[in-house]
Automatic annotation (TrEMBL):
It comes from Orlajensenia flava. It is an enzyme of class 2 (transferase). The keyword Kinase applies. It comes from the Bacteria. This is ATP-dependent 6-phosphofructokinase. Catalyzes the phosphorylation of D-fructose 6-phosphate to fructose 1,6-bisphosphate by ATP, the first committing step of glycolysis. It is found in: Cytoplasm. One of its GO terms (biological process) is fructose 6-phosphate metabolic process.
Amino acid sequence: MKIGILTSGGDCPGLNAVIRGAVLRGVISHEAEFVGFRWGWRGVVQGDIVPLPRQEVRGLSRQGGTILHSSRTNPFEGEGGGPENIQRMLDENGIDAIIAIGGEGTLTAARRLVDEGGINVVGVPKTIDNDLAATDYSFGFDTAVEIATEAIDRLRTTADSHGRCMVVEVMGRHVGWIALHSGMAGGAHAILIPEQPMSIDEICHYVESVRDRGRAPVIVVAEGFKLTDMEAEHSHKGLDAFNRPRLGGIAELLAPMIEARTGIESRDTVLGHIQRGGAPSAYDRVLATRLGMAAVDAVKDQAWGEMVTLRGTDIARVSIREATGNLNTVPQSRYDEARVLFG
Ligand SMILES: Nc1ncnc2c1ncn2[C@@H]1O[C@H](COP(=O)(O)OP(=O)(O)OP(=O)(O)O)[C@@H](O)[C@H]1O
Ligand SMILES: O=P(O)(O)OC[C@H]1O[C@](O)(CO)[C@@H](O)[C@@H]1O
Ligand SMILES: [Mg+2]
């Protein structure tokens, strides 16, 4: 059995741990052989393939990024794209199956390759934002929350020194999980998330009540947050490779608005890709390793079109279709719980 692995979409701490888990499980338990497709689906479309023997994955679980690199290439486009070309490339290289590690977009492409072209693909969910339904948590999220929480802790001390308001922007295109968890952990005075638009007046109300208690306000905002009068997410950086608006910068918009309305000197910090870089947390290493191992078992069982997932503390399987249809949004009850601590 020869298995090709790829990592696609935005990177995320733990990708290398998935690769290591898959290779070790395959080599030890199934006598499998592994190759890597470089740069996500681009490696599949262009036949950019590297061997992945056991020694290549040594010590990988603690390493950030992805040794296979990533891209936002669409496997249905370009000269070598589409199921027929991909099946030919797999046959030429003697590859029996693909393990695709990626988010909603990557997994949707994987499902289409299975449904429309009969390609042997299983998926591993990857999302720093924790926005995929059908998995309770995804690896990388815990690490991002740790990084954001440390940043909030650090910003709090400088905020206190100067009596300033700090607006901290974290990732979260469609959902506010990183903001919710890091904000709760770091004791934020308001948490602004895409699922819950809020007016600038309400935000300033929280800021002023914090100031009136003699504290320096700390506001955490997810990049996809919209003020109640905004039609779309704040974006001033053009489009990404998949023609979506590049987000980032809502904190830069909010801080001067807060300062103008409240008179409290305000500063913004955009954490950006710091949240995606570096070593994964121990939790993420374990989760990623288990998912990688389970993905190889899914290949062994020919579970094409399925993805491995975390259910409670168990690793399970679901159809990719089930996972890609819905977003894992922050439930109202979780936001209401956090809101008690605002202001
Ligand atoms: N419906 C689709 N059909 C074919 N290809 C798709 C489809 N949706 C997305 N893709 C391809 O998959 C790539 C990866 O998707 P995307 O860029 O959204 O990353 P992702 O895997 O969802 O990870 P992230 O969490 O970073 O968004 C896209 O850039 C696109 O080329
Ligand atoms: O790394 P890029 O391509 O700028 O993508 C950033 C986006 O990817 C994510 O990190 C994960 O989807 C989002 O939170 C963010 O909007
Ligand atoms: Mg996506």
